[in-house]
Write a structure and sequence with these properties.
alpha/beta; 268 residues; three-stranded mixed beta sheet; 2-enoyl-CoA Hydratase, Chain A, domain 1
Amino acid sequence: MTDSQKEPVILCDIANHVATVTLNRPEQRNALTVEAYDLLEATFRDLSSNDDVRCVVLTGTDPGFCSGDDVREMMTGEKAEARNNAPPTVRHEITPAADAVLSCEKPVIAAINGAAIGWGMELTTFADIRIASEKAKFSEMFIKRGLICDVGGFYRLPSIVGPSKAAELLFTGDVIDAQEALRIGLVGEVTSHEQLMPRANDMAARIAVNPPLALRHMKEGLRRVALGDPHEIGAWAIEKIHYLMKTQDHKEGVASFLEKRAPIFKGR
């Protein structure tokens, strides 16, 4: 298959006022490339201003939801070159894709069909409602790579599961299953894998029949309740991530993952 014939890495379908956005790199468990980040941002910005859309369902092509950054591209592609050559005083902003999903004016339902790891878990926290398949797993595994989380872990996760549980998930990088995610309130419902999309679509339909202006302002009101500014927190997080990506511990964390061995961190 040529580049012009390859499947889009982000799919978007709109029907009956509901947009379904699907991460579509199944062989890589929907790991995010630079292209995927850009398309995710563009898609959500378009949907936010689309008057025909009243609710968005976000999911992944089986077998995973999103495994986070594409590690091989991160270490060998243009993204790695740009990061390694960037001066230490570069001014950073909130991750554009995170901003696009967080600021989307339409209610967002995450239908989590499989593993949501790293930025994949961050992405679930940007949604207003989370429904998980019994096959779903979650991990804020950044600490295992010598990094910190993005705005989702700092801004959204504590308000969803509480500060103590958020700290536990962030400090350990532990993987939790769907039932544990339900127990701690990370997701609102766990269903069979076969019923995940029907349940998400049913909820989206029940939301989409409501008046669009009231929906938009209802979401705005919920957003205003959250403490802190996601742009300020996101910019700080990206600055620190940029610094940590240059450390030996980060390189060791990635190398040990690719080589399938236990890492040895040295604090430098």
